[in-house]
Structure formats: C-alpha cells, structure tokens
Specification:
It contains three helices and four strands; from the N terminus they run ββαβαβα. The protein has 132 residues and is α+β, with helices and mostly antiparallel strands. The chain folds into two domains: 51 residues, no CATH class; 65 residues, Alpha-Beta Plaits (2-Layer Sandwich). The chain starts with a strand and ends with a helix. One of its GO terms (biological process) is response to metal ion. GO terms for molecular function: copper ion binding.
Length: 132
C-alpha cells in the first residue's frame, strides 16, 4: 500500500507498507500549530471578550458608526424608525439639509468601527444594542 501525501502531511488512515500510522511528535506539532493558526482570530476575540468582562473595558471595534445618504428627510426618518424599532442602533442622528457635489444613483451606506470613545457612552451603547 502506498502512502498518500498531501501538502507534506500523510493523509489519515494511510501508512507505508500497510502498517498503522505511527504517532509522530513532529506531525502532531504541525497539526497543532496549524489549528492554532486557524483559530487565532477566534481565540483573540474570546480573550478580548474575557478581558472586557473582567475589567469592564471596551473592546475596540465592537460597535460601529454607520452613514447612510437618503433622498430626503422623510425617507431618513423612516429608515431611522425601522433601525430603532429593531434595536439595531443605540441612537440615530439625522443631519438635514446636507448636500452632495455629485448627484447619486447609489446611496452611500458605510460602517466604520469605533476604536475609542467616551467610556460612559460606549457602556450605554453596549447596554442598549443587543449582540447579534
């Protein structure tokens, strides 16, 4: 029986000469390293959440600020009301009478992560917008 090698690792269940695959510390180390690299963002996020829970500090990027252009104030109010009814935002500010240099066919809808802010406001936002 021939061993199958994929990206330098022997495929599970295959061995040279039909014998059981040997347990190799090198192979185990490679697999664990690969798993840690794949899970790194998840582990980092969990570590930040644990730190935040223990210290009460804000995790940068947990919340964001969104900007949406609307054709008129009536549409802006309808969108704001729908957002607040669904508790997708802690608050909505409508900036009337803004104008654009260019006419637009596609509305601007962007979201920017909040890295820093007034700690009391960030805590209030955390309490009023459920995690999704």
């Amino acid at each position: 029986m021939e061993a199958k090698v994929i990206n330098g690792l022997r495929a599970p269940g295959t061995a040279l000469g039909g014998a059981s695959p040997p347990t190799s510390p090198g192979l185990l180390s490679e697999v664990l390293t690969l798993l840690l690299l794949l899970l790194h963002p998840l582990l980092w996020g969990l570590a930040l959440q644990l730190h935040s829970a223990l210290t009460g500090s804000y995790i940068p990027g947990t919340h964001s600020v969104a900007f949406v252009t609307c054709l008129n104030e009536h549409i802006a109010r309808d969108i704001a009301r729908a957002i607040m009814d669904r508790r997708l935002a802690a608050c909505v500010s409508i900036l009337p009478k803004s104008s654009s240099i260019h006419p637009f066919e596609i509305p601007e809808i962007i979201s920017l992560p909040i890295d820093q802010g007034n700690p009391a406001y960030l805590q209030w936002m955390e309490e009023n917008v459920p995690r999704r």
